[in-house]
Amino acid sequence: MNFSRKELIETEATMNQMRNAVFHLARLMEKNKIENSKETLRKMGQNIANTYIQYWKPTDIITLANLKDVITTIYQKVLNSTVSIEINEIEEIVNVRDHNCALCKYKYEDVEIAGCEILLGLISGLINLISKSTSSNTSLILKPHEVIESRAYGNKSCNQTFKYKIGKV
Amino acid sequence: MGAFQWLMKKITKVFGRSTNALFYTLLYREILKEVNNITNNEEESLIILREIGRRSASESCERHSNIFKFMPGNPKKVLDYFEILWVVVFGTELDDYTYEEITKQGSKYNDYVLKINKCPICVDYGHDLEDTFKFERIKNKETEGLACGLCGMLESVANYILKVKRSDYRIQIIEQACITKGGECLQFICKIHDYKEWKELLESSTKEKEIIRTYFKETLEGEEVLQETKLDIIDKLQDVISIDKLEEYLDEPLESIKEKVSDIIKDKLNMEPEHFFDYFRNYEDDMIRIIGYLGTHLLNEYGGLLEKFLKNEWLAKIFGYIFKQFKEMTLLFIPLDVIRDYNSLLVNFLDGLAPVEMVDNVKRFTGKDTITYIFEGAQMALQNLGIDFSELKDNVWEELKAERENGLISSETSTIDRTREKVPQIINIIQQFLMIFNDILTLPIRVLISESHYGLKTAINSVVSEEEGLYGSIRERFDNIFDQIQEIRK
Q1: B285: pLDDT confidence band, cut at 50, 70 and 90?
Q2: Distance between CA atoms of B198 and B204, rounded to whole angstroms?
Q3: Which residues on chain B are in Cβ contact (under 8 Å) with A50?
Q4: Which alpha helices (H) appear in A53-115, and where do they start and end?
Q5: pLDDT in tens, B350-403
Q6: Which of B18, B119, B179 sits opposite A14 (nearest CB)?
Q7: What are the percentages of helix, strand and coil residues in chain B, rounded to 5?
Q8: Do B130 and A51 touch (CB under 8 A)?
Q9: Sign of CA dihedral B439, B440, B441, B446
Q10: Which burial class, exposed, middle or buried, applies to A78 when counting CB atoms under 10 A from its CB (0-12, 13-18, 19+)?
Q11: ipTM
Q12: Which of B26, B55, B122 lies nearest to residue A52, judging by beta carbons?
């Protein structure tokens, strides 16, 4: 009998080739004039979240109080990354710094997109799906904002940002 | 599983960047879906995904080419080590599979069929709303299945090994059965072609070439010819040291190893062993230092891992302290009889290879001298590789205290917490290395006793069984060390 997706959660896989594959896909999109490849990568992350949530979720309720812990847990459990997170409550922006991004490592001269655009879709997707299932006045919705820095752009680490909103979903 | 097969798998796993396997599988699915959004043709999408897999693996191999130089260059052997290919590509163990050889008349090599009962790519495919790539739309029964991208990666790694080993053969790996497509298991057929046949095969696959040209806006990348550039030490050694050959050496007694060393000196240096060792006559102490020096550098040649490891200031210091500890422990605590055993082993090794006068000079060394020279050589090599021994304190605890007083460790709570979390793993690694050191100390007497009757492998595995003997013990400790490194890397 084959594995189940639930079982895969307990297993690890090496990302080296898949990380390269993301950039080959980016090249393919560019050569075939696919517009807005950034949005496409984020949508891929969102689709991953739609399936992933059926097998694992970090918590049942997400508020501003536990947002940092929730994001840290997702990065750790899904991507094996230890990240540092800052929340700017005035601008309602979450800033995640990942020194060992699972999807970016090398700078490519011919690709102008960061692999971690996928993670923007994944993280916001997982958080929004949890918030939708337990909608309350303190629920939190996360929207992909920007990859400010990336190892794929030649920076030392990846810096991913999200916009958040509090309120009934 | 052979020792080097195991080591190769461990190194690949520990130093690769891993994520949760479900994330991997879902990302793979999304890449296929996006390719299909571009082509709007399922059959073409599978060909493109395979090509993406091939290019991705080839890119990785180019970055870590030295590791593959230790793989065997014989295509059949490459397939024997299929488990390693799987670990290189996917990162998890390949278990629950069968392997069948299909006789191919008139050909030097047969075909091989691998049936893998648990496919990490097909898992539960089709049960989720997001599983939108539809195999039902494909009319052509000859197409590959969902694992075609993985298949492209495996083929690429296998052929990269054959390329760096300058083999005249190439391997074609085709996905014959796919669980998502209704197959009972994931099935690959591996066909070995000579280089001419392989080129013809690539030339003849016009449909695939056309599809790749259409979407990648370029022709199928021809296999680049390996330039005859300046050979590094691994290139020179790869003919004699590859994982299959090392397994053979372990099966053979000391005399056979001496014969092999003698052949290497004759073949590679074009001189008689006695003539070669004669260069070191009256400089025997330097020769022993060179053994320690070259031994350490040779260890580093294994993918440059040691050097990469020592680039990190902290790891270099930890390694330096472990080395100092070994050096001091050996001279302070190891019984002289044990050290003498090592000396006898060296004398036995040189006897017959080196001039009599030189062997006599080495016999005059005490065991303590030999160990000191080896450590001196190794220390010189480690200094080259990045350990600044002059900066090391008397012991590691003083170092930790000093770092805190200097404020070099960040005052940010989370960083300190993370560092503290790693302390148990670091201590465990040091402890495991010390235990391995103790295990190894029992080796020479076993080799000397078993030499005339059995091989080195017998000595290593002596006591009860492979699992419970010295080999099993060392392997278990290294397993533990790799696990701890993996924990730290998280």
Answers
A1: confident
A2: 10
A3: 128-130
A4: 67-79
A5: 888 888 888 888 888 877 788 888 888 888 888 888 888 877 766 555 665 554
A6: B18
A7: 65, 5, 30
A8: yes
A9: positive
A10: buried
A11: 0.97
A12: B26
